[in-house]
Design a protein that fits this description.
There is one protein chain. With 452 residues, this protein is of the alpha+beta class. Strand 1, helix 2 and strand 2 form a beta-alpha-beta unit. The chain is flat, with a radius of gyration of 29 Å.
């Protein structure tokens, strides 16, 4: 084989390898693309148009996310021509139209020509595009409403809603004063103490926290209802609003004690029994009042049933606090820190971040556990009646329950330990979770079940 033939052969081999690799990548990324979909923190763009700038605003306002250019909505990868020039165009569009300019970075996948734009959650909210701020709603970017815009402004200025100056300045504090006299040992609720508690600000007036704790205010309060055999049967209804948070708290306790506590004479002593632990109820109500969003004109709802209580407070978790952190008691982010401080001083809450742990601790010896349903717009806490035996469970349900008393396990491990089929295990654990006997932890492949 002469020199020219060897050169031709090497050229043909390189051509074959390029063709093979191109086909390989096409197959690989098509397969990946088929499984890709847009989410709240991931958006695809087939080409570079100004529409992506709404999503830049949304990510900067609410949470770090990625925009990938050169991918169709269905996940098919097509790439971007001249990706380096395109990156410069993307950078210029952000710098010219987003105010203030967020932190972001651009990366190019040389094998596919896909550009990934990562936008970081910013501290200088709100971030505007063409005079509007945006948020993510599932996989779309939409303008924020007036309430959300005010929250973004407060966040950018490191302010809490309860620290703002109230529109009402004709406030009286009889209820708060009596509580302070009883718990803090003061002789009177002076202007200086109101300033110390941050309920009054010199030269500005009463704060919203002050209004919420005043004898009369402009806020929705607590809507309590006791139901019969269904939600269509009201046995008692009590709506308390436009009065002190302390009245909301005390009235809720009064109604709870009426239906979930009872006393019996044992010898010469009267013993109190609780169908639902008062400690858990106190913490759940305090949690709802301290951490709810008070700029939403809605009641905190307390629904009382024969076998459980549901407490629903408006507003999801504070920004920066995840569900796992919330359930583990890591509430270092107080939505209403002034109210939280007053509740702490009045010994309504023991200390910050322990409420959820105390609720769970109150059910330590119960086979039914409290449930926590957390969404973007509300937090629901379900407190079941204490159940100290498992006689109502079937033999198979008891078998799984007994195994999980000592260690959290996945459904796969339960299959190994019980000999049951996967479908049967999932049916049983889902039923036990729904009825409050088990708690589900994690998600996806890391999901485990436990009675603790």
């Amino acid at each position: 084989m002469d020199k020219n033939e060897r050169k031709s052969e090497r050229k043909n081999l390189r051509s074959f390898l390029r063709s093979f690799l191109r086909s390989f990548y096409d197959i690989l990324y098509k397969k990946v693309g088929d499984n890709m979909r847009e989410t709240k923190s991931l958006e695809f763009k087939e080409s570079i148009t100004n529409t992506f700038l709404k999503t830049v605003s949304a990510y900067a306002n609410y949470g770090t996310g990625k925009i990938q250019f050169g991918i169709k909505d269905d996940g098919a990868i097509i790439g971007i021509e001249n990706p380096r020039e395109a990156c410069l165009a993307i950078e210029n569009k952000i710098n010219d139209t987003i105010n203030p300019i967020p932190n972001f970075r651009l990366e190019i996948d040389d094998s596919t020509n896909v550009i990934t734009l990562t936008v970081e959650k910013g501290k200088d909210t709100p971030y505007f595009y063409n005079g509007k701020s945006y948020r993510r709603s599932d996989s779309a970017s939409i303008p924020v409403d007036t309430i959300e815009l005010k929250r973004l402004v407060m966040e950018g200025e490191n302010l809490s809603y309860d620290s703002l100056v109230s529109k009402r300045q004709d406030l009286q504090f009889t209820v708060l004063e009596e509580a302070c006299k009883s718990i803090m040992g003061i002789s009177a609720l002076t202007r200086d103490l109101l300033i110390t508690l941050e309920l009054y600000r010199m030269n500005e007036g009463y704060t919203i926290a002050g209004e919420l704790l005043a004898d009369e205010n402009s806020f929705h309060g607590v809507d309590m209802a006791r139901f019969g055999e269904s939600i269509n049967v009201f046995l008692e209804r009590n709506t308390i609003e436009h009065t002190s948070l302390l009245n909301y708290y005390n009235e809720a306790l009064t109604m709870y004690r009426r239906y979930y506590q009872y006393s019996e004479i044992e010898g010469s002593f009267r013993k109190r029994y609780e169908r639902i632990p008062e400690t858990a109820f106190r913490e759940a109500i305090a949690n709802a009042l301290v951490h709810r969003t008070w700029d939403i004109p809605a009641h905190t709802k307390i629904s009382m049933f024969d076998d459980h209580i549901e407490i629903v407070s408006p507003g999801g978790l504070p920004k920066g606090l995840g569900k796992d952190q919330y359930l583990e008691g890591q509430i270092s982010i107080l939505r209403n820190p002034i109210i939280g401080n007053v509740f702490f001083r009045l010994e309504i809450i023991e200390r910050y971040g322990t409420g959820i742990q105390r609720i769970q601790e109150a059910y330590k010896n119960s086979v039914k556990k409290p449930q926590f349903d957390i969404s973007d717009n509300s937090i629901k806490i379900i407190l079941p009646v204490i159940e100290k035996n498992i006689d109502k469970l079937t033999i198979d349900e008891k078998k799984i329950y007994n195994i999980l008393q000592f260690k959290a396990l996945s459904s796969g491990k339960l299959v190994e330990n019980t000999g049951f089929g996967k479908t049967k295990v999932l049916q049983i654990v889902n039923k036990l979770v729904k009825s409050g006997f088990l708690r589900k932890q994690g998600s996806g492949r890391s999901t485990t079940y436990t009675v603790e």
